[in-house]
Design brief:
Layout lengths: L1 H8 L10 E2 L2 E2 L1 H22 L15 H25 L9 H26 L10 H7 L3 H14 L8 H25 L9 H5 L17 H6 L4 H9 L17 H11 L6 H42 L5 H50 L7 H43 L3 H45 L1 H7 L2 H50 L6 H13 L1 H28 L6 H4 L10 E11 L8 E10 L3 E5 L6 H9 L3 E9 L7 E3 L10 H6 L6 H10 L3 H5 L18 H14 L4 E5 L7 H15 L4 E5 L11 E6 L2 E6 L1 H8 L53 H11 L1 H35 L19 H6 L19 H50 L2 H6 L2 H43 L7 H42 L1 H6 L3 H53 L5 H44 L21 E8 L9 E8 L4 E5 L6 H8 L7 E6 L2 E2 L5 H5 L2 E4 L10 H5 L7 H10 L3 H7 L15 H13 L5 E5 L7 H14 L4 E5 L3 H5 L3 E6 L2 E6 L1 H6 L4 H10 L1
Parallel strand pairs: 5-9, 5-10, 7-8, 8-9, 14-19, 14-20, 17-18, 18-19
Antiparallel strand pairs: 1-2, 3-4, 3-6, 10-11, 12-13, 12-15, 15-16, 20-21
Length: 1484
């Protein structure tokens, strides 16, 4: 290098690179460093911006500032070329030799040409509206000092003095021109960007920052991509606390957008394809290419210690030229920077591929959900696939490359070990290989336990889903404790598996952590047995190398674990994707019907709910439905009416025969027996994605009798309804579902008992205005038990046992099913119940108001905490682990680190003793220069494996007595054994602690959720609560302990390092304050955004869960309405928002990582440069410098590890924060009891209401307004009234599901407000309007508390005419399926009635309990109720008026007040009584 400098600078050998000449800065230094280096930087920076995307609008002319900069930079690229002509003329007054000038001029020209091109690209991008990147302008000014120095040199040389020489004069003019152009460039930058533009982007720049469309990395420069400069606006918003919603994050790059991923996935997906092959086809090549980055990064990891070794060797040797040292220092700095960049880009690109796979898999899961046939998983299982399994599949991305990267690191280290101790290393390797089968056994057990754990988790989430759906009934019946213990039983089984997994993990980690020590000792014994003499040098060298094995050996179990977990989840996802699809082409016959006017034809068709036909089959020998006809379908409960409609809509398995529908591609109107309502406004529910047509909309509202209901809702048709319509009454839900079907304007309608849940006059209205009116021209299949409404049907089908028993005109068929023809006038059916609505005002307007959201909006946006995770969250986790256990974990952690430090100190002491003994040896300062390919002892001494070593190098082979070696080895072995024991204890205690925390957190959450009032469940989507029980619980169980473990290890590692650093080299501690301040500012800037992005990621998951559960529940309607595409688009939007948060979160993590890595590289480079300067001044101590560098390497690594693990822990703590939010902040039902009562305190059944007032929320009118009445023991009371009169509110107040605002309720003279809720509800019984059954056996559903014998249960089933239905299912131990889906709706209602028959409560409330039951069965049930509850008080909300007529008294409610209360006969005799009006309406 010196020879090259002498030739280039034309200098003397004494001073090859003169910094100072003739009282000025040396010209060679000016040209090479100040000029050429500045221009190289300019070229590199400018090249980074060559890929900037073009402006989206039409290209308007640039602003004057941009034009001036373009012209100036173009001229600056030309001037150095012209300058070469006078430089070529020989002259004593021209600075520098020609070679130097050509080099400098050439670099300048290339730099300014690159810069001109970059400016041209930026001028055509969106940067044209500003001044462009600031860094471009700053680096463009870097060559100015060199130009100024050249100008000063000319002034000193008197270039302008006579006699004038042309060559120097021209060169002076060119320097002045260059400076002028730089000044013009600066003016061009100072001029503002294009303010006169009126394009979209210009006007958009007036928007507030979060609203502006934010560019992601697409089209960004290399520089911006490498250092994540494009994240600056996002991080700034995070630091200002402006990240409030997902839209505040940056947009996704094109390759991560969900629409693109869905297209890519489907392009590779074939029927029954293997998921992993599809993912490989879509993303595999890019993913495997990342392996090259990983390989380069791994190899560069070894360059640091090797170059460090060479640098220390150089410092020890006085005779080596300085250029060698500079090369080593540059290599060390360059390797560190390049390694940091490669590792960072690898991590970032890997995460992007993982997000691509996640987006594709989640999209495919939802697409599959919409295609599912009748065999479907439960909502809980689907949610687990979405939450847990898709996340575990992502772990595969990093684990696969680590699976070959770690063995590679291992191999290189083992090769270096072989160079030290020869074949003796095979002894240690043999031991390591022996551990592999043991690890295989452990891994297999972990895999098996993982599968079992996921099954228990599925069962738990599934039960929670059902529990949340039926929370009202659970509270009515007081089953919280029973169902809570069922959930806890599943949780205990889940934790049992998790316990085994965690202890096996602890064993795995301990084995690999203890391995280096054991390997070392085995190697030494083998070495001695092979006949070699063991020296301290060999011991220390081998130990240092074995220390380098720790990382790959420690990480390997986690990698294998990640791969195994991914395999389990892959199999579960594959199983779901392989479920049979709903295939309309195969299901329906392509041939047209035999008759031209036939719309629907079935011939010899057999249908079943399961593919092999083991359950009840529906067999239709022949059925033809003519165009425009009304077909009534009747039959007793469970005869297959709903199954026939499901067969027509394609929701069953067709086992044989054929079914033909004309125009099926247009879809058909479907109103199911259980109305499916979305969590949206009433208008959105009715429109269901179709464009708003005002005329049609008002017609539909009128036909479905919804005007009056909308008039009393606070926001009219813009009122949001709860999930599944919980805030509406049964009748309102049924009519909204019917309105949705009618609004779709189909030609074929399948109506499953839409008249069941409405009172007589509404049913009449629906029949005449809707079914015979607006739908009069369509073909309709109508199932109903209310046979009086089928008199105008064209044909009636009578079903029994899944077969058509008889078909014919109404006059022939109806008499066969009606109870008594003359009773029709009085057989006024079910009055609609106004369930606990959050609104009950009088009518406000005649038409629904078209207004925006109001303060009474039901769905509250999900809360999101702001700022740092609060201290009380960490405190809660500490308490969940247990105070003493937490302290024990910390104690053993400190002892583990202390013994590790003691071992390092003992080794350094050993080497010091050796040096003192061998000071006279001639070999002491010999260097291994003849083995350049092998690492010298310094490599091992100063590598992180042996940090606390002596300051100076040690002899390569100094004889040492075996007695000494034995002594030192014994002490070392003792310390290592102690370390091993503390490590084991710490691993076991940590596993115990996190298991304790997992159990405690879930238990508290479940306990609080079950104590929450029903109003909380009305306004909170199930998906939001399930997200806590699924994702957040999984995070607290698994992800949080993993990162917390790393954080604790890093923290004590740093403490130990600082302790030894402070005692050994105190002056190095001076570096810590500035370094600490810098680290603190960076991590603080990062953490502000990281926390919010983690919260937003959790927040955007809930809508995905809710949407999936909702879609599964309403699949038949979505498909019948041909709305699958719209739902898929909606899912894409929700997924895109979640992916945006996930992407931003991982990009921020890499932003932090690259900065921490580069700061580490800077510190190492700085120490190396100082060392070179000291060496040049003959002040350097090689050992001290080597030790400093090794400390710098490990200190920065530990600090970066600490920051990233702390940040990750904090982001994971968000899950604990969300669990704590529900565990602590949820409103709770009143739990105390002011009086103690015995078990049978309610002995008579006397009910008294005194001035009871109820308002659901402040500001809303009273639902009950001063209600006062008295019910005598054993009295039968019928409760009637119009919609919204407060019938259901009476029951809610009686059971204290809502607390009255004023007044008192007395039961047997006891004030209910003084009782405990369990004491109160256990003495009351209810048959709810909606039957609630959960997954489990008939016995568990019938008798959840397990109080009755089998004979009693069978008797109850017999009384409800269910024994024939239950026997084929498997008797009392037969499974009912999710939500009791193995029974029809009517049969479910009967099972709920049987449940009530088993109660010994003195007061029974019946809320429209026989809605879906045929008339004959209903008559028998009424008889059963009369007989079984003869001595008990019965409050019946009126369903069929003939039942009310048999009551002792009738209570008529109007607008929340008692309007009338008397015997039915007395009320009928009053000419203007409200009861009489109700009777007259029903008879019309």
């Amino acid at each position: 290098m010196e020879r090259l400098l002498i030739k280039l600078c034309d200098s003397s050998p004494d001073k090859p690179f003169p910094l100072w000449e003739s009282g000025s800065v040396g010209h060679c230094f000016t040209q090479l460093v100040l000029n050429s280096l500045a221009h190289v930087l300019l070229a590199l920076t400018s090249a980074c911006y060559l890929g900037t995307p073009r402006y989206p609008g039409s290209i308007a002319p640039c602003s004057p500032g941009w034009r001036l900069r373009l012209v100036a930079s173009f001229l600056l690229s030309v001037l150095p070329l012209f300058d070469l002509f006078p430089a070529a003329i020989p002259s004593k007054t021209v600075p520098g030799p020609l070679g130097l000038e050509v080099l400098a001029g050439g670099i300048s020209t290339i730099a300014w040409i690159t810069h001109s091109l970059a400016l041209w690209v930026l001028a055509r991008s969106h940067s044209r509206l500003s001044r462009g990147p600031l860094i471009m302008a700053l680096i463009a000014l870097l060559p100015a000092p060199a130009m100024v120095l050249t100008l000063l040199w000319h002034c000193q040389q008197g270039t302008l003095l006579t006699p004038l020489q042309l060559a120097p004069l021209f060169r002076l003019c060119f320097v002045i021109l260059q400076l002028t152009m730089l000044l013009a460039y600066l003016l061009g930058w100072a001029a503002p960007g294009g303010q006169r533009q009126t394009s979209f982007w210009a006007s958009d720049s007036l928007l507030s920052e979060p609203q502006r469309p934010e560019v992601t990395e697409d089209g960004e420069s290399w520089l911006s991509r490498f250092f994540y400069m494009w994240l600056a606006p996002l991080l700034t918003r995070g630091a200002r606390g402006q990240l409030h919603q997902p839209q505040d994050t940056c947009l996704l790059p094109y390759r991560l957008q969900t629409a693109y991923l869905a297209r890519l996935f489907r392009a590779h997906w074939k029927e029954r394809a293997k998921l992993w092959l599809v993912l490989y086809g879509a993303f595999g090549q890019r993913y495997l290419a990342l392996g090259l980055l990983k390989l380069a990064g791994t190899l560069l990891g070894f360059s640091g210690p090797l170059l460090l070794s060479l640098l220390v060797g150089f410092l020890e040797n006085e005779r080596e030229p300085l250029s060698q040292g500079i090369l080593y220092a540059m290599g060390l700095a360059g390797g560190a920077v390049l390694g940091a960049l490669l590792q960072n880009q690898y991590g970032y690109e890997l995460r992007k591929v993982a997000l691509q796979a996640r987006g594709a898999v989640l999209g495919a899961l939802y697409h599959k959900t919409l295609q599912l046939g009748p065999s479907r998983p439960s909502a809980g299982e689907a949610v687990n696939l979405l939450g847990t399994d898709s996340e575990r599949l992502l772990n595969f991305a990093s684990s696969f490359h680590e699976a070959w990267g770690l063995p590679l690191q291992l191999s290189i280290t083992l090769y270096l070990l072989y160079q030290q101790v020869g074949l003796a290393f095979l002894g240690g390797l043999g031991l390591a290989l022996l551990l592999v089968p043991l690890n295989k056994v452990i891994a297999t057990r972990i895999l098996a336990k993982n599968q079992a754990m996921l099954q228990h988790k599925d069962a738990r989430v599934k039960l929670m889903t059902e529990l949340l759906c039926g929370i009202r009934v659970i509270k009515f019946c007081g089953w919280e404790q029973t169902l809570s213990s069922r959930v806890q039983k599943y949780r205990a089984q889940e934790l049992q598996q998790l316990r085994v997994i965690k202890y096996l993990d602890a064993a795995c980690v301990y084995l690999w952590a203890a391995l280096p020590v054991v390997i070392s000792i085995v190697i030494f014994i083998t070495y001695v047995l092979m006949g070699h003499e063991l020296t301290a040098t060999k011991v220390f060298t081998a130990l240092a190398l074995v220390g380098m094995l720790i990382l790959p050996l420690n990480n390997f179990p986690w990698v294998i674990n990640g791969l195994l977990e991914a395999k389990v989840s892959l199999e579960r996802l594959q199983h779901f994707l392989d479920l049979p699809d709903h295939d309309p082409q195969a299901y329906y016959s392509p041939d047209p019907p035999t008759e031209p006017l036939t719309v629907l034809e079935l011939h010899e068709a057999v249908f079943s709910w399961d593919p092999i036909g083991t359950g009840l089959e529906t067999f239709i020998s022949h059925l033809e439905v003519k165009k425009g006809s009304l077909v009534g379908i009747v039959g007793k409960v469970g005869c297959g009416k709903s199954s026939l409609l499901a067969a027509v809509s394609g929701e069953l398995h067709r086992l044989s025969g054929q079914i033909t529908i004309v125009g099926r591609l247009e879809g058909f109107g479907l109103a199911t027996q259980e109305p499916w309502i979305q969590f949206a406004t009433i208008r959105d529910n009715i429109l269901f994605g179709k464009a708003f047509d005002a005329h049609l909309y008002w017609k539909v509202l009128e036909a479905c009798a919804l005007h009056d209901d909308l008039a009393i809702l606070p926001d009219g048709d813009q009122t949001e309804v709860g999930e599944k319509g919980v805030t509406l009454s049964g009748g309102q839900r049924a009519r909204i579902a019917l309105a949705r079907a009618v609004y779709q304007e189909n030609k074929l309608y399948l109506l499953d008992d839409p008249l069941a849940a409405v009172d007589a006059d509404v049913a009449n209205h629906l029949l005449h205005k809707c079914i015979l009116g607006i739908l009069g021209h369509t073909t309709r299949l109508l199932c109903t038990h209310r046979t009086e409404y089928l008199e105008q049907a064209d044909v009636v089908l009578l079903l029994e046992g899944g077969r058509i028993l008889q078909a014919g005109p109404p006059s022939e068929i109806l008499p066969l099913v009606q109870v008594a023809p003359d009773a029709q006038a009085e057989d006024v059916q079910k009055t609609e119940s106004a369930a606990p609505q959050a609104w009950k005002p009088e009518k406000e307007s005649e038409e629904p108001k078209d207004v925006g959201p109001s303060p009474s909006r039901l769905l509250q946006e999900e809360g999101k905490k702001e700022g740092a995770v609060a201290f009380h969250v960490y405190q809660a986790y500490w308490k969940a682990v247990g105070g003493w256990l937490s302290l024990a974990i910390l104690l053993f952690l400190l002892l583990m680190q202390g013994t590790r430090n003691a071992a390092d100190w003992w080794l350094s002491h050993w080497i010091s003793q050796l040096k003192m003994a061998g000071n006279d040896s001639q070999e002491l300062w010999q260097l291994p220069s003849h083995e350049p390919s092998l690492p010298s002892p310094q490599l091992l001494l100063f590598s992180p494996g042996g940090l606390f070593a002596p300051v100076s190098p040690w002899p390569r082979a100094t004889p040492n007595s075996s007695l000494d070696v034995q002594f030192y080895l014994t002490v070392y072995g003792s310390i290592a054994s102690a370390n091993s024991i503390f490590t084991l204890l710490r691993a076991i205690l940590f596993a115990t602690g996190i298991l304790q925390a997992a159990a405690t957190l879930h238990q508290r959450l479940l306990h609080r959720i079950l104590r929450a009032p029903v109003t909380f469940f009305d306004s909170t989507p199930t998906g939001r609560i399930l997200n806590r029980f699924s994702s957040d619980v999984a995070c607290a169980d698994d992800s949080l302990p993993f990162v917390l473990n790393i954080l604790l290890a890093n923290a004590v590692g740093l403490l130990g390092l600082l302790a030894v650093l402070g005692s050994g080299l105190p002056w190095l501690l001076l570096l810590l304050p500035p370094l600490g301040a810098l680290y603190y500012s960076i991590q603080r800037h990062y953490r502000a955004s990281s926390r919010e992005l983690r919260r937003l990621s959790s927040l955007t998951l809930s809508p995905l869960y809710t949407h999936l559960s909702e879609s599964l529940a309403g699949l038949s309607i979505i498909r019948a309405s041909r709305a699958s595409c719209r739902f898929e688009e909606e899912n894409e939007k929700l997924l895109e928002l979640n992916q945006r948060c996930q992407f931003a979160s991982s990009a921020c993590q890499q932003w932090l990582d690259i900065r921490l890595q580069l700061m580490g590289a800077t510190v190492v480079s700085a120490i190396a440069i100082i060392a070179l300067i000291q060496h040049y001044q003959h002040l350097a101590n090689p050992g001290l410098v080597g030790l400093s560098l090794s400390y710098a390497l490990s200190l920065t690594g530990l600090l970066s590890g600490l920051v990233s693990s702390f940040t990750q822990t904090e982001t994971m703590m968000v899950s604990v924060e969300r669990l704590e939010e529900y565990s602590c902040d949820l409103p709770s039902e009143p739990q105390g009891q002011q009086i103690q009562v015995g078990v049978g305190w309610l002995s008579q059944g006397h009910v008294e209401f005194q001035d009871v007032v109820l308002a659901y929320r402040p500001g809303l009118p009273n639902a009950l307004d001063g209600v006062t009445f008295d019910v005598l023991p054993g009295e039968k009371i019928g409760i009637v009234g119009r919609t919204g009169s407060g019938k259901s509110s009476l029951l809610l107040v009686l059971f204290r599901l809502v607390e009255p605002s004023a007044g008192h309720i007395f039961l047997d003279g006891v004030d209910t407000s003084l009782l405990g809720l369990s004491d109160l509800r256990s003495q009351l019984a209810i048959i709810p309007q909606e039957p609630f059954l959960f997954s489990g056996t008939v016995r568990e559903n019938l008798d959840p508390l397990g109080r009755h014998e089998d004979e009693v249960l069978w008797q109850a089933l017999e009384d409800c005419h269910l024994s024939e239905v239950i026997t084929p299912l498997g008797g009392l131990d037969g499974e009912l399926g999710e939500g009791g889906r193995h029974l029809s709706l009517g049969q479910r209602q009967l099972l709920c009635l049987a449940r009530a028959l088993l109660t010994d409560a003195k007061i029974l409330c019946i809320d429209e309990a026989t809605a879906s039951v045929d008339q004959k069965t209903d008559q028998l049930l009424q008889q059963t109720i009369c007989n079984r509850f003869a001595t008990k008080t019965v409050l019946t909300i009126a369903h069929r008026l003939n039942t009310i007529l048999n009551s002792d008294r009738v209570l008529v409610l109007q607008a929340g007040r008692v309007a009338e209360l008397d015997t039915p006969a007395a009320l009928r005799s009053r000419p203007y009584s409200l009861f009489q009006q109700l009777l007259q309406n029903s008879q019309q």
